[in-house]
């Protein structure tokens, strides 16, 4: 298959930048907005995040089925959803950060409705977007570049939010006006980025079955053990990571007393992104995606331990714990999407039907439920510690609650994620064999045999296998 050009890779990365104008803004600031601006209690906000994000997870499955069921000869399966769903998504982000004062019940109801609508709109754009990478190329080098472009695009937005927006979240500021202005500006920027993606990131992978039935979708998922293991591990990891993300601002502001370090952390994140994106494909080739995932997760565990046990007076040590956690998260984020793409080919190998939509949707479903649990646990930890909004000095119990959410929860949940991932069987070497067999079937016109469905990857396969990239041989897909 012809290699992807730079414009296609950059265009794909622009799509995740656009996604994160809505998604990262919500994950970084929505809990703070609800407690400090809308006046919703921490416990009520935690329940809201849990309920709506679980709803979002089911919306992902619905979106995955819609993607698999539809096909446009002109634009393919995925780009029409991005074209028609992007502007409603961005406008709903504005609505979510514009909660009116309607009394306790009315305010809470408005928050539920707008955040749920935002989640549904995000699913209808993000599931097609995430599925698009596997349909653009099967070349491992190009998949690595798409994963890096996606991570860079998303983290450029995250870094900009940390550098320019987070310092504004301080007592006495007109935060409602701040969030309204920011989200309105994002509507214009996001629209341009989304349509750049639509025009440049095109599908090129052969598709034997353009419109996939529900039965075919279920068949590809039923025996996909590698996908199941990846989903469980990602659920645990994301639960821990979202607990940290949800209270990161609280930790810097209310525990360390150094909100000014938030933009510094964002700049470090930006630098780390480019450094890791540069050498991570080589590391993947040397030790395999599975081992990169596990070792990166252990770095995140170490960061969580530092955050939890560091006294509030030791500012630089606590900040170093945040940076350490960040290194692990970024490194893991490079490979996780490539691992998901590998499971698409595993399902195709077993059934003969390629179902990027429902495969990505199931993966996203578990990640969304992880985000729901993590965000809720963080909010409950705040409530348990007795967090008080309004810029007051927090009690020692409230400080401890923040440290639990930022350090202990991520560390424990990530250890569990590593234990699950240690049993992941779809190695890089096995994935290369699967691709070779799929291509051989296409050339011969053969359907998959039942015997294939019973074959599981050999336990003797190792992730350390180094692939040699050529234009005619299939390989593992290293890479957000």
TrEMBL record:
GO terms for biological process: carbohydrate transport; sodium ion transport. The chain crosses the membrane at residues 12-34, 40-59, 80-103, 109-129, 149-169, 175-197, 227-249, 261-280, 292-310, 316-339, 369-387, 399-421. It comes from the Bacteria. Keywords: Membrane, Transmembrane, Transmembrane helix. GO terms for cellular component: plasma membrane. GO terms for molecular function: symporter activity. Residues 465-480 have a biased composition (Polar residues). Residues 439-462 have a biased composition (Basic and acidic residues). This is Glucuronide transporter. SUPFAM superfamilies: MFS general substrate transporter. It holds the Pfam family MFS_2. Residues 439-480 are annotated as: Disordered. The keyword Ribonucleoprotein does not apply.
């Amino acid at each position: 298959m012809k290699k992807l050009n730079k414009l296609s890779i950059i265009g794909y990365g622009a799509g995740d930048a656009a996604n994160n104008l809505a998604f990262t803004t919500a994950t970084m600031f929505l809990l703070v907005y609800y407690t400090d601006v809308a006046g919703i209690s921490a416990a009520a906000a935690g329940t809201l995040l849990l309920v709506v994000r679980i709803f979002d997870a089911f919306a992902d499955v619905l979106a995955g089925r819609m993607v698999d069921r539809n096909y446009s000869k002109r634009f393919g399966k995925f780009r029409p959803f991005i074209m028609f769903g992007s502007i409603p998504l961005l406008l709903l982000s504005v609505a979510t950060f514009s909660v009116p004062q309607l009394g306790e019940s009315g305010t809470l109801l408005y928050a539920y409705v707008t955040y749920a609508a935002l989640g549904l709109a995000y699913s209808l754009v993000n599931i097609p977007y995430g599925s698009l990478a596997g349909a653009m190329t099967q070349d491992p080098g190009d998949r690595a570049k798409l994963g890096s472009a996606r991570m860079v695009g998303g983290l450029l937005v995250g870094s900009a939010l940390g550098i320019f927006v987070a310092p504004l979240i301080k007592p006495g500021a007109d935060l409602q006006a701040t969030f309204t202005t920011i989200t309105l500006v994002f509507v214009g920027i996001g629209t341009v980025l989304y349509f750049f993606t639509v025009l440049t990131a095109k599908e090129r992978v052969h598709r034997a079955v353009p419109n996939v039935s529900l039965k075919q979708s279920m068949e590809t998922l039923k025996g996909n053990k590698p996908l199941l293991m990846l989903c469980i591990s990602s659920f645990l990891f994301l639960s821990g990571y979202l607990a940290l993300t949800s209270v990161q601002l609280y930790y810097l502001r209310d525990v360390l007393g150094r909100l000014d370090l938030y933009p510094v952390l964002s700049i470090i994140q930006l630098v780390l992104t480019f450094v890791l994106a540069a050498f991570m494909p080589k590391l993947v080739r040397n030790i395999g995606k599975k081992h990169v995932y596990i070792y990166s997760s252990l770095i995140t565990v170490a960061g969580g331990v530092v955050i939890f046990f560091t006294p509030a007076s030791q500012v630089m040590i606590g900040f170093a714990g945040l940076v350490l956690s960040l290194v692990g998260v970024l490194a893991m984020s490079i490979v996780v999407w490539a691992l998901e793409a590998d499971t698409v080919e595993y399902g195709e190998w077993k059934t003969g039907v390629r179902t990027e939509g429902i495969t990505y949707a199931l993966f996203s479903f578990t990640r969304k439920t992880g985000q729901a649990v993590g965000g809720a646990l963080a909010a409950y930890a705040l409530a348990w510690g007795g967090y008080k909004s309004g810029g007051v000095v927090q009690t020692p119990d409230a400080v401890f609650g923040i440290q639990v959410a930022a350090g202990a929860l991520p560390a424990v949940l990530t250890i569990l994620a590593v234990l699950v991932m240690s049993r992941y069987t779809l190695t890089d070497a096995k994935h290369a064999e699967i691709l070779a067999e799929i291509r051989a079937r296409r050339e011969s016109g053969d359907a998959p045999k039942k015997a294939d469905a019973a074959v599981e990857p050999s336990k003797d396969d190792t992730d350390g296998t180094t692939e040699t990239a050529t234009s005619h041989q299939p390989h593992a897909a290293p890479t957000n």
